[in-house]
Design the sequence.
């Protein structure tokens, strides 16, 4: 069946498009896109007047928890959370149990995704076996199995020689290493951003330098190897400055930021709310302002959720003992539309570029991140004026660890289409 | 005179009138401990649980005696003998104890914010007996009580707090409390244990003990833990002693009638010399004695006198 999407405001940064267009979808691909497409026999017609039609949103950073921690989340529930949150594709970080460091796990994830997932799942494999930071994984084999990038997310490789080899080797394979930048000697067993608020609350701090030192190292190693790197969830002013400086010298570094690092700062932790415990931690107001500036100027390329589901009982403990992480897939787009687009920090086209076009480009997903004939029919449809109140009890995710419960936001994803099929609203 | 709190989680939440209410109540209750029969029936029938997840002799005994002198029943619960070692969560531990209908939980916990967390789901009154590096409100109250016994006024009183400020809940609670009462607080320690940011909380900071002692009315020495040396917060005990030990020579830099305080346990010859700890200027044992009166006052204000449960 062919699907005709009519009268939408089509915003496609890849072609600089922002106008009212009709889109014809056939066999999971965009068959045609132009001002007026005549309806024909057998078309299903969808009128999206007053709505924005964007190339499907791609989350470069999510934790799906399967295999191994299905009590928190699984491939199916994460994919439904993604669909509900406006994402047509999500990347699965490798810190599962077992770790995605071999072909078997990658194939398992892709096979389960084909059977049960509502959106596209792209596995990110480990850089080193067991995320131990010692021996590189069989990257060529993993790429062949379907991995789209490599990361030891959360277990930042501390040994600079291992990191050097990872960058050299991944570049020869024309793939990408994504690094969670954290010097563990500096962060130790820290719990929140180090600063006035951590000192006041008596919580051990994670200094900004723990991130900055590793961003600096990565930039230096990437430049030396003439390789490419993507910095995960940038959280500090200093980190943003290092990325900006590197790009001026044409070092191939890209960076992402999460909605929570753009919207919240460390002062929010005053009541020891474990739903705000996240790594990297919520930083100072000064860091937040610098990150917003880096988003505006294009120093940061990508908006990503770092979706990290944990159960209520895991979070309902002393602050020290709670796991790090925010469940973000179902609140990210509304938060960003409210705080960035509707408050004029970022125009709509730039926003879509950062959450669809750029992730597709960085990951090398040639048929995604654009709305042109021949592209995959992955679409995110937005209502910029819809007001919603975040309600964690309505989540499609298995977990509820999200600090935005009760927030009133303007702008929301209202329909998600993957390969021409409406996956949200749920049928 | 009114104490407006349901729990005692920290000094941060108290206003001056709350603080003065505690001090005045402690003053009237302190006499009980000097009687032949050290017991009044005020809290008869009330049950208090001492919930200690960290070793403590002084604070735990002090709460226990305070409760007993007011005729409350008190039981001691410590981590080593509890189902916590079997992996029970703090929340479940508290819910199980609460099923036995106690009136107050006195909580000492190594994690900052733990009493605050407990207060979000429990029915009993929560009393923070020290949480991580956050607060130790009864210690600060007993310190203020002790200061008030020798100093006429808190206004512009020069208080010097020396040592591991970064990790000290005693320093934080005293900083908050004595500032609220009008004292001028100077925090002293090496930069690794005294971040600049403490200036944001209304204190003056200094890395030189000698310079800070001039004009001091109250000198509060903090215990230095030897583990801090292993983490390179300072090079050696020898070096620490040379820079920050309160000696007789240093004490002469302070005001003539300055008093010496320490929350204990003391490391003789490390942060304080034996002569100073035992000198007539030292009120260290007076602090311990006053601890009982302060804890009696807190228990009385939260649990006693009149029925105050209804509104909550």
Sequence:
């Amino acid at each position: 069946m062919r699907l005709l999407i009519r009268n939408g405001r089509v915003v496609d940064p890849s072609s600089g498009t922002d106008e009212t267009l009709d889109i014809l979808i056939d066999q999971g691909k965009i068959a045609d896109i132009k001002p007026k497409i005549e309806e024909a026999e057998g078309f299903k017609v969808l009128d999206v007047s007053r709505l924005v039609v964007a190339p499907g949103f791609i989350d470069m950073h999510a934790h799906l928890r399967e295999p191994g921690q299905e009590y928190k989340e699984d491939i199916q529930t994460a994919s439904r959370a993604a669909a509900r949150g406006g994402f047509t594709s999500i990347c699965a970080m490798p810190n599962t149990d077992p770790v995605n460091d071999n072909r078997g796990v990658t194939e398992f994830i892709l096979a389960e995704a084909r059977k049960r997932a509502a959106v596209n799942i792209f596995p990110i494999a480990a850089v080193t076996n067991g995320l131990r930071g010692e021996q590189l994984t069989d990257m060529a084999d993993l790429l062949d199995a379907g991995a789209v990038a490599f990361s030891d997310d959360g277990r930042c490789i501390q040994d600079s020689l291992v990191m050097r080899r990872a960058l050299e080797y991944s570049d020869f394979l024309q793939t990408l290493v994504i690094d969670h930048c954290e010097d563990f000697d500096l962060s130790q067993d820290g719990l929140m951003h180090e600063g006035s608020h951590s000192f006041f609350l008596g919580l051990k701090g994670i200094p900004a330098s723990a991130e900055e030192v590793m961003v600096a190292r990565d930039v230096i190693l990437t430049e030396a190897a003439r390789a490419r790197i993507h910095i995960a969830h940038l959280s500090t002013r200093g980190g943003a400055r290092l990325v900006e400086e590197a790009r001026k010298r044409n070092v191939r570094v890209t960076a992402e930021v999460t909605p929570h690092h753009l919207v919240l700062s460390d002062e929010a932790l005053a009541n020891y709310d474990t739903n705000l415990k996240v790594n990297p931690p919520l930083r100072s107001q000064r860091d937040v302002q610098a990150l917003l500036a880096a988003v505006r100027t294009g120093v940061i390329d990508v908006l990503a959720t770092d979706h990290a589901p944990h159960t209520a009982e895991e979070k309902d403990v002393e602050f020290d003992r709670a796991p790090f992480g925010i469940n973000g897939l179902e609140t990210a787009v509304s938060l960003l539309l409210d705080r960035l687009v509707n408050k004029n920090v970022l125009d709509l086209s730039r926003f879509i570029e950062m959450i669809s076009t750029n992730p597709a480009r960085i990951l090398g997903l040639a048929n995604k991140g654009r709305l042109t004939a021949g592209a995959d029919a992955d679409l995110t449809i937005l209502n910029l004026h819809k007001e919603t109140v975040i309600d964690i009890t309505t989540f499609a995710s298995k977990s509820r660890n999200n600090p935005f419960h009760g927030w009133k936001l303007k702008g929301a994803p209202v329909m998600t289409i993957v390969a021409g099929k409406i996956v949200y609203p749920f049928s | 005179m009114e104490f407006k709190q349901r729990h005692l989680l920290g000094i941060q939440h108290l206003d001056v009138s709350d603080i003065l209410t505690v001090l005045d109540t402690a003053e009237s209750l302190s006499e009980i401990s000097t009687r032949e029969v050290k017991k009044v029936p005020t809290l008869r029938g009330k049950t208090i649980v001492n919930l200690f997840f960290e070793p403590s002799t002084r604070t735990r005994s002090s709460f226990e005696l305070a409760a007993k002198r007011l005729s409350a029943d008190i039981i001691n619960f410590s981590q080593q003998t509890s189902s916590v070692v079997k992996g029970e969560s703090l929340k479940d531990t508290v819910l199980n104890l609460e099923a036995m209908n106690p009136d107050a939980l006195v909580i000492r916990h190594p994690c900052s914010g733990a009493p605050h967390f407990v207060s979000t789901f429990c029915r009993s009154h929560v009393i923070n007996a020290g949480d991580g590096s956050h607060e130790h409100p009864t210690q600060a109250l007993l310190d203020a009580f002790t200061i008030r016994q020798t100093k006429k006024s808190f206004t512009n009183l020069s208080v010097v707090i020396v040592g591991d400020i970064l990790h000290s809940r005693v320093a934080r609670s005293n900083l908050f409390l004595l500032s609220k009462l009008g004292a001028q607080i100077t925090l002293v320690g090496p930069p690794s244990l005294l971040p600049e940011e403490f200036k944001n909380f209304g204190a003056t900071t200094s890395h030189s003990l000698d310079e800070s002692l001039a004009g001091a009315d109250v000198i509060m020495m903090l215990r230095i833990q030897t583990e801090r040396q292993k983490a390179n917060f300072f090079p050696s005990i020898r070096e620490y002693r040379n820079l920050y030990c309160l000696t007789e020579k240093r004490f002469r830099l302070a005001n003539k009638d300055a008093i010496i305080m320490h929350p204990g346990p003391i490391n003789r010859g490390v942060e304080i010399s034996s002569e100073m700890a035992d000198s007539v200027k030292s009120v260290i044992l007076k602090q311990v004695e006053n601890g009982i009166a302060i804890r009696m006052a807190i228990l009385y204000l939260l649990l006693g006198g009149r029925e105050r449960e209804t509104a909550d």
